[in-house]
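Researcher: Go.
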Amino acid sequence: MCPIRHCGFFVVSAQGTSTLIDTHCHLDAGEFDSDRDAVFERARAAGVMVQVVPAVTAANFAEVATTCQRYPGCLPAWGLHPMYIHVHHEKHLTELRRQIAQWRPVAVGEIGLDLFVPGPDFATQEFFYVEQLKIAKEFDLPVLLHCRRANDQILKQLRRFKLKGGIAHAFNGSRHQAEAFIKLGFKLGFGGAFTYTRANNLRRLALELPLEAIVLETDSPDIAPAWIGKGRNEPAELARIAATLAELRGIPLKTVIEQTTQNARELFGAVF
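Model: Structure:
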């Protein structure tokens, strides 16, 4: 697979049937500081040739850029995460626009809403979410959405802006909500959470939803799959996550890999 340069970042062609795309991976995170090179090489050995690396704060932009410039196949998304509203300022929205204009990402993200953790003011979360939807609309980019316990509120704003699409990251909603996202042109991100046998709702959705609506992700170093438990997650685990999905649906692994890769390519465009 030949790397090509896209907006300053090396992109690895994702045409092969053995290629996996991790649509959400925080490879820049501090948990990988001691062995990031080895983590990246394990991912490539497992067939994970493309990783989308979302930013979470304006201060995080530089780390994401450095990571994506260093590791071929790692592509940035720029955004302001709802769990960090205590450090976000309105000026960071200007910085986000500047960052997108300078280094066009594959998406705006990680953005969204979180109603699971008590504390972060919802009105402030919603302000930054809406303003970033406007930015995504302005630049004609998809979005990577943090939707924890906030699918209906997320969908309400998406219906207003009619974006290019995106991913409901770590989706864990109802079938009705899943269908609402799909109707708006969104893919649903499935990762380690559905690998737990007790995750009945997620496993049912992973089985029943159209494969054309699913993309794979790890959210490394978080949301570790069942075989890791409370340990650190990493992008190489995407291969076994894909195999778990294939087993659950009773279809060939090749089918899962090819379709989820195609889904990601349709969403992000032919940049890899």
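Model: Residues 1-6 have pLDDT under 50 and may be disordered.
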